[in-house]
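G.,

No rush on this.
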Amino acid sequence: MKLSKKILVSGMLFITAAVFAFADDTASVQKTNKKESETSVEEEYLRDPEGDIIQTLAESDDYDNKLVALQYLSDALESGNTSPAVLQALDRLAGEGITSQSRTNGRMMNNFPEIRRQACLLMAKVPTEHSKNMLVSIAVADNEPMVISAAVKSLGDIGINNNDETVDAIAFANRRNQVLNPTSSLAMEVLNAYEALEGTTENKKNMVDSIARIASDYRYVTPVRQRAQKLLKKFTQNASSNNDKKSTKSNTNKSNNNTSTAEVDGE
């Protein structure tokens, strides 16, 4: 009986010690996790100080700060920094006064075409679907020829043209500008973009029509109209060459089929 009591007491002491040890371990783990969590937050904040600075400058109301942000952006993209903060700042500057507007007493305070122009050119360094969509929006919505020119140039450099949406957007922007304010520099960028996107275009009707309009519009300078005429000729030659290849391939397939049929008949 005494032995049983001793065993019982010993067991209770062991269990109590184990509980305290478990509690200590749990507290230690919780402290460690809390410390790691705090460290992670700090590291997350300090991971991209360059992006944070750029984003702060881009969101400033001051024009000069936005110019500085563009310089930082250029350097960041050159070094391969495409963090979320950097890309958000680029979007903000590219749409300054278009997709993001700041007004005081009904007057827009952040209509900065030069900021948008430079940001649109920088977007070519981030050739993604998102950049393409942003540039398409600007090309269609902006009223400044120099901004539209930059957006069109970058669209040609990026080269994404799903379902011809990029070509259609460029054609729309150029047609609107041609009616309201025909600008030779914009027309030249449109032609360059068309040439770059030719291989991605499924239906060249809008593209060819747009080029033909530029070629026949004497409000554009002669070199631009000549460039349009050469591009039309190039597209025509490419189309003829592709048709010849398709015809040759079709004839070859027919010849092979006829040969196979003749061999079967001969057997």
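When you get to it, here's the other one too:
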Amino acid sequence: MDKTMCSDGKARETVDSWFVAGMIKATSDLWLKGWNERNGGNVTLQLYEEDVAPYLPRWDGQRQLPLGKALPALAGQYYLVTGSGKYFRNIAIDPETNIGIFRVNKAGDAIDVLWGLSDGAFPTSELSAHLESHEMLQRRPGNQNRVIMHCHATNLIALSYVLKFTTDDLTRALWEGSTECLVVFPEGVGALEWMVPGTNEIGGATAALIAKHPLVLWQYHGVFGRGASLDEAFGLIDTAEKSAQIIQKIIAMGGVRQTITRQNLIALANRFKVTPLASALDLER
């Protein structure tokens, strides 16, 4: 990592933090997968008080930006976010310009940029979808999700053109595409029909689905994944994407002749003690 691009010693200390280093690795991995071309995709990581406490005295950013929708439940919370119009491939070279850390203000209607997003950069245009998803997930008892990850996973997007686009049909197809899928995402994949990105409307629709399903597929666009860590969110998307690739190969070879059966899926769920999405499991195939 080239730290010469960081403006001073204080910035370099932040770049060495576990959370910035983790974001650099995750976004680099996403770009290398080919899922985040140009400035596509975005990631948020919630930071806890104990994460930021050692660095707060070093952060002198005071820029405030309004939120399109007030989220008072997130007041005082800290997030690491990728920048709008920024290329994931450049984050490792110049993290201070391409990512940033902000705190939601007391009213929940604006954010204070504390570090990064230098030269007047803004957080991702999909910030509404991220923050509304975080807010919705925090309502869940025992919630441990602190990452929302959006990318343009090639094969998952392709499936949105050819499969019947419902949550149950998409989920069942991916479960059958690879044995580990039911174990990794038993709650299924939410299917969100095409909407204009970067709006409060798609933010609310995404949040409603991601509270029920760890993955949400935006039709013809990309996928959102959640997780307790950057690795978990990345691995979740990677697993679903591998199954989507297998499904495409099956279609190209003439289609399914045999598949993982409902009874196979039930046996798998029992073995790994997970509860599959019932409506997908009971889908007539």
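DSSP finds twelve helices and nine strands in the chain. The beta strands are 42-47, 63-66, 78-82, 99-104, 110-116, 147-151, 189-192, 215-218, 222-227.

Enjoy the weekend,
O.
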